Fold:
Amino acid sequence: MKLQNGGYLWKSALDYDGEVNELFCNGSTIEPIFTDNGYKTLKDVLMEYVDREELENSSKTKFLNLDRLPILSQMDGHKMLCFDYGYNMEAEYEIPEIVYFDLEWWAEDGYEEKLRVKSYDDLIDNLVYYGYESTSYYVGVNSKETIEKIVELIGNTFNLQLEVRTDDGYGWYNFDTWYRGELKLNRNLSAIIKLTPNKFLNNTFLFQNDKEFNFVIDIEIKIGAESCQDNSNYLKSIILDKFDQFLSNVHWKFLEVPFHKENKIELEKIVKTFEE
Structure:
């Protein structure tokens, strides 16, 4: 929030009560503290399609104050994440809880509480890097060499020609140039490699907490065109084995690794590619 007043999160899934569920998906962001979009609370949103009198008399208790639900994220438009300062309690909470609502026509009163987390800290502390668009393994490289030299080192190590790119990576990148290539691990398994600077042209960073690493290697393991989402501990061991010759020549560390969720069916498919 201090760096850019909201936006996208690396860790977009919630590991809570024994389940891991994608939370900030489909373009969901943390709302900025200061916004001009008109929606400040859940009540502002509900007033668009629920009658005011019906809304104000919808509580099953005699206490209802929807203005006590400032928006944390508007999610995908059908769900809403809010701070809750006690919207259905007589006394206002000093420290808000976090509530996840479904907003659908079939939901009673137009909204339905689906998940409650005891605090903002509890929410942030239980977010994990997992799910759709969270399948890459990010390696930070600290080197005095130029990015072109790193490209050359990767090319020589793997006999791989990386393609130079100048696009914005579908809106995620802000670099003059970056590089991409595909490394075949076996007949069916491949690693899509992207090499970028860590620092954007506007002087913020791809990984703000790891500014000492001036380059980032994005490694995504795929079977054909399908990304491998689960079994990250197993996939991490493959990456360490296959990339050891390159990594042993640079100062590096994993910056982000997908949350490990065991998926026996997917794991069998991956193992089978090596047997073939």
